[in-house]
């Protein structure tokens, strides 16, 4: 059973609870007289999507980002609570972060995970999602607690990511046993870290998993604002996140956008996205650009899903399907490449993913 947590100040708790109540009433009433916002959405999924949208919007309106972060954490739902995963905070001199150790790890791989939140938030619910992934994949995960914007603009996050990667190498974990993974801004950091590793002369990981990744910090694609009515994340927020990432530096959008990078000679990349999320057009553009440059890449899009639909676990069939496909992708890595190694085109892993495919998934 999903579990809802209320915490923090009474004012934040009360407003969040009222927002959830009002959203629930609105969705139920609208379904009586009309249709769901998207025909394939369940009632709980529609409520959650609209609720988190309102939470993010209110967090952005608060006087300080610190208060916005606290407000967003005041009410959240855990899809699968009490999972048998041990969480261990890193200790000095290790990079800041947490280890998530599943009860029955069944792989030699280790995942280096970068959380989402536009580089400005690290919501508590993100840690529960990492716990969910560790349990579903049965792979140890080190989730980096990288520095946040706007307090710490670029290159702070990139520096923290490289430090964490070196930390795993120093622990004796070979690069071919490391999988980079991340969601949203964390997906952005995954893609930029692949480039930074090559520039630093460090070995590539065996695989990169990017869930709903942010691939252009500027404006790109009609969905960035055109899908605001569907998604929990809004187009204006992406532009603000981009400004915070650039800080007062002389960085251009292209310098900090994965789509504008040299994507040759990188680890294989597997991307998952929702067809109703604001980032889907820029994600498709990135996949096409990476393919054009000769990168090994696959993109799967779940047509009716929104940003980071993966976090719903067993409460949402599409989430379960996506995580199963992640598990299959990891199983198909060997020595840093997908098997069969020559299949590096956009749709080149159809045979390899075989059983992981569902009719509501399409390769782009």
Shape: globular
Computed structural class: alpha/beta
Indicate the CATH architecture of the largest domain. Answer: 3-Layer(aba) Sandwich
Q: What's the mean pLDDT score?
A: 91
Strand ordering within the main sheet: 3-4-6-5-7-8-9-10-13
DSSP helix fraction: 25-40%
* Name of the CATH first level of the largest domain: Alpha Beta
Strand content: 15-25%
The profile of the biggest β sheet is: 9 strands, mixed
CATH topology name of the largest domain, in short, is: Rossmann fold
Q: Helix and strand succession?
A: EHHHEEEEHEHEHEHHEHEHEEHE
Multimeric state: single chain
**Amino-to-carboxy terminus distance:** 34 Å
Uncertain segments: 335-364
Please work out how many helical segments DSSP would assign: 11
How many distinct beta strands?
Answer: 13
CATH superfamily of the largest domain, called what?
Alpha/Beta hydrolase fold, catalytic domain
As a whole number of angstroms, the C-alpha radius of gyration is 19 Å
């Amino acid at each position: 059973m999903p579990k809802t947590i209320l915490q923090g100040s009474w004012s934040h708790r009360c407003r969040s609870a009222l927002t959830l109540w009002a959203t629930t009433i609105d969705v139920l009433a609208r379904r009586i007289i009309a249709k769901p916002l998207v025909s394939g959405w369940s009632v709980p999924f529609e409520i959650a999507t609209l609720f988190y949208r309102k939470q993010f919007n209110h967090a952005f309106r608060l006087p300080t980002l610190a208060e916005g972060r606290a407000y967003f954490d005041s009410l959240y739902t855990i899809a699968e609570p009490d999972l048998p995963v041990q969480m261990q905070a890193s200790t000095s001199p290790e990079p800041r972060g947490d280890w998530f150790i599943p009860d029955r790890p069944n792989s030699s791989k280790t995942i280096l995970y970068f959380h989402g939140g536009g580089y400005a938030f690290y919501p508590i619910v993100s840690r529960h999602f990492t716990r969910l992934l560790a349990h579903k994949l049965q792979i140890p995960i080190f989730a980096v607690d990288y520095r946040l914007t706007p307090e710490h603009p670029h290159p702070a996050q990139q520096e923290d990511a490289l430090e964490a990667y070196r930390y795993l190498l120093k622990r004796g974990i070979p690069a071919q046993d490391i999988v980079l993974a991340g969601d949203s801004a964390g997906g952005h950091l995954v893609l930029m870290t692949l480039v930074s590793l090559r520039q630093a002369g460090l070995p590539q990981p065996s695989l990169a998993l990017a869930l709903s990744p942010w691939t252009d910090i500027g404006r790109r694609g009609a969905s960035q604002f055109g899908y605001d009515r569907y998604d929990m994340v809004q187009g204006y927020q992406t532009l603000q996140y981009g400004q915070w990432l650039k800080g007062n530096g002389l960085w251009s959008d292209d310098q900090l956008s994965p789509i504008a990078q040299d994507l040759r000679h990188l680890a294989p990349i597997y991307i998952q996205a929702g067809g109703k999320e604001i980032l889907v057009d820029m994600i498709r553009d990135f996949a096409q650009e990476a393919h054009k440059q000769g990168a090994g890449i696959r993109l799967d899009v779940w047509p009716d899903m929104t940003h980071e639909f993966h976090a719903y676990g067993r409460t949402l069939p599409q989430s379960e399907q996506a995580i199963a496909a992640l598990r299959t992708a990891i199983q198909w890595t060997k020595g840093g490449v997908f098997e069969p190694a020559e299949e590096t085109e956009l749709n080149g892993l159809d045979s390899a993913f075989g059983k992981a495919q569902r009719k509501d998934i399409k390769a782009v």
